[in-house]
Write a structure and sequence with these properties.
Elements lengths: L9 H17 L15 H15 L4 E6 L10 H11 L7 H16 L8 H12 L16 H22 L2 E6 L10
Parallel strand pairs: 1-2
Length: 186
């Protein structure tokens, strides 16, 4: 319960704020790589930056994930963690609860704009990537024996989801400890 203050990172925090403002002004995405020696406070800096963004701009969507050494060979772990955090999924959720949380979470980000892809279809594909099972999914049937096709379709769904979320306001993805990320997540 003790609150600590971030000390000595004003310059780095200002750099992150400046890049964020550039993105807002230009409307173009940016990749920012925060590097440094082990233990210098990179994760804490990102945590504090995300907190400031959410406090200052209620329309910003911040999603975060962290790779771990022990998960470096777990396919799509970084994305599983990101969406599990966002949708408040737990490993011990009953399958029906996990499906409902996934659909509700995607619908929130998806918005009301109609398109070629529905939020429910996106839920089935994204859910299958992160371990949420869909029994007899009408969307997944044609991809049962086509793993590459299913993966490509899932990537398309994730891109559409992030694009739609960005229509509501800025979207910030924080992926921590990328050195441990599995190849599929990268």
């Amino acid at each position: 319960g003790v609150e600590t203050i971030l000390v000595g990172r004003d310059s780095e925090m200002e750099q992150l704020r400046a890049v964020y403002q550039e993105v807002l002004d230009s409307g173009s995405p940016r990749l920012v790589l925060v590097t440094g020696n082990v233990g210098v406070g990179k994760s804490r800096l990102l945590f504090e930056f995300a907190g400031q963004l959410e406090t200052e701009n209620p329309l910003v969507t911040v999603m975060s994930s962290r790779a771990l050494n022990q998960t470096s060979r777990v396919p799509y772990y970084l994305w599983k963690e990101l969406w599990s955090n966002r949708f408040e999924l737990n490993d011990d959720d009953p399958p029906e609860d996990a499906r409902n949380k996934t659909i509700d979470g995607i619908r929130t980000l998806w918005g009301r704009t109609l398109g070629e892809i529905t939020a429910v279809e996106a839920s089935h594909f994204l859910g299958s990537l992160i371990g949420v099972s869909w029994d007899k999914s009408p969307y997944m049937t044609e991809f049962e024996d086509n793993v590459k096709g299913r993966t490509r379709r899932t990537y398309k769904m994730v891109a559409e989801l992030l694009f739609r979320a960005s229509r509501r306001g800025p979207v910030v993805l924080i992926m921590d400890d990328l050195q441990w990320a599995d190849q599929g997540s990268l």
